[in-house]
Every structure is written in structure tokens, then in C-alpha cells.
Amino acid sequence: MTAVTGPRAQDARYWLASHRGPILAAALFLAMFAVFVTEHPAGLSGNVVNTAANKGALLALVAVAQTIPVLTAGLDLSVGSVFVMTNCLASTVVTGTPREVGLGVALVVVVGVACGALNGLVVVVGRLQPIIATLATGAMYQGIALWLRPAPGGEIDEDFADFVTGSLGDVIPFSIVVLIAAVVVIWVPYRRSVLGRAAYAIGSSEQAAYMSGVPIARAKFLAYVLAGLFAALAGLLLTCVTYSGEANALLGGSYTLSSIAAVVVGGTSLYGGSGGAIGTIFGAFVLRTIGDLLFVFDIDPLSQPLFLGVVLLISVSLGSFRLLRVKKRLDLYR
């Protein structure tokens, strides 16, 4: 009996090529994390894993927020500002009785969605370049953050914060559960929806998508709305980690830059049309683990921003160099 392996082998090669970014990012993260826990004085302890998970989940949520507009060949420079603003808001309203805490969490999420909706309206209705539009709205959100928190402070319900930043059964960090739930509940249905597929079509060729009857305006609008939602979830998690809020423009800018780098490391094309949230999440954990490795190898704290900046520059540059070699979109899968 002769087995027909040709088509199957070709399908397998195509699958591996189309998922090359996430696979490489996952492998790199596992290798780096293994080195980190080996060199860490506490080893593979629950506290070490939980702390690393909380830091990685923060960047991962912001990076997923960046990924969705990038799929449409856009770029959201306001994700860091929404992240900081919702942190300041959460430190004000997520406190009190369980009912008040629940309403506060809902308000933070709604505000994040509203910020994303404003971005989408400016880009779609105003027909401005996403970089310019979100740079302007990001400045607005940073101003609101300063209005909410002129000085660092605030509070959050301790039971809620401890639960979100703790572990399930002292084994699984709850922040990872939140991240997985966000992917399963939000990203996966979006990826399979008409507007999700439309986002990929727009990123591949907006003109061809328009000629094919793809709902371009609705797809772009939803992309920025979801970006605001994920950024708000990150801001809420930051409040749970720090128990306070701070209108830190440097923090917002750092997370915006890191989110772009995580997108590239995770295999998403800056031209749009290919990639996804899973690779971005692993890319975010790779970047966070780099910072942890600098710590365990006792690199001078004053030099760490330099090392991280070089890594971010190389990450973004590698993605750009690859795009310069692409003649056709199908080349991305070769």
C-alpha cells in the first residue's frame, strides 16, 4: 500500500511556515526562562513564577492591543496612554463593597472601549493616518490620566487585587488565567468572525479588500475598539500589581514601544495581514524575560535600559528587513 504523503507534507510545511513566528517566539521564551530559573537564587519557586507571570501578562495584554490594529496595517500609539489612564481610573473606582468593585471594573473596561472607539472614529471617519491620529488621542488620554492622578496614589480593593495577582492552588498564576481567558473569549471569536477575517484582508491589500466588498470601515473600527479593551485590561492588572495609580508618561511610552517589539518578535507583519495574538503573547514574555536575565546576571541597573533599547531596536529592525525582502504577500509563508 502506497501512502499519499505529498499533499499532507505540503500542508504541514505551509502550516509550519505560517506559524513560524509564534513557534520561534515560544521556543525562545522557554529557553530563556529555563536559563532564568536556573540562575535565579530561588530557582523554580511559586513566587518567582508568579512574579514573572504578572509582569509578562501586563506587557502581553498591551501587545495584543497593539496587534489587532497592526493586522489592518495600522499602528496604535495610544495603547500605552490608555494603559496608564485606566490604571489611574482603576485606582480611583475599584474599591469599596464587592458591588462597587464590580461596577468599578466594568467602568474601567467601558472607558477603555470608549477610548478605542474614539481612535477608530478618528481613523475611519476622519481618514487620518493611524499613527498621527493615535499620537494625538494618546496625548489626550495622558492628560486625563494627569487629571485623575496629579500625584501617584489611590487604592484598590486588596482582596480583589490579591486574587488577580495570586495563584490558583499555589501553582497557576491567575494573571495567566486572565490572559488565556481574554484570548479564548475575545481573540479567538474575533479571529474567526467576518470582521476578524476582514482585518487580515485589509492588511494584505486594502484596495483588493474594498473591491471584494469587505466591510473596511467596520473592521478598522472594531480593531481599535478591541485595542482599547485589551489596554484597559492591562491597566486594571497594573493597578492590582501596584495597588496604586500613576500618570507616568514614560511608562506609557515604554509599553507602547515594547508592544510594537513584541508584535514583531511574535511574527506579526508590520505591513499587516499576517500574524496574531498568540505569537505576540510569547513575544511579550520573551522581552520580559530579557529584563529578568539582566537582573539575575547582575548587569548594572544603569546599563539595563541600554540593553533593552538595543534589543527593541534589533527586534523592530529584523521585522522591517524581512518586509523589505518581500515581493509578494505569499513570500511571507515561504
Could you explain the architecture of this structure?
The protein has 334 residues and is mainly α. The protein has one domain. Helices cover 75% and strands 1% of the residues. The protein has a two-stranded antiparallel sheet with strand order 1-2. A hairpin with a 3-residue loop joins strand 1 and strand 2. The longest helix is centred in the N-terminal third of the chain and has 27 residues. The two termini are 32 Å apart.
**Structural class of the helix and strand makeup?**
mainly alpha
Detail the poorly predicted runs.
Answer: 329-334
Shape: globular
Strand arrangement, largest sheet?
1-2
Describe the secondary structure blueprint for this structure.
Blueprint: H1 6-18, H2 20-39, H3 46-71, H4 79-93, H5 98-124, H6 130-148, H7 158-165, E1 167-168, E2 172-173, H8 174-192, H9 194-204, H10 206-211, H11 216-242, H12 249-265, H13 277-296, H14 304-324
Helix pairs in contact: 2-13, 3-8, 3-9, 3-11, 3-12, 3-13, 4-5, 4-6, 4-11, 4-12, 5-6, 5-11, 7-11, 8-9, 9-11, 12-13, 12-14, 13-14
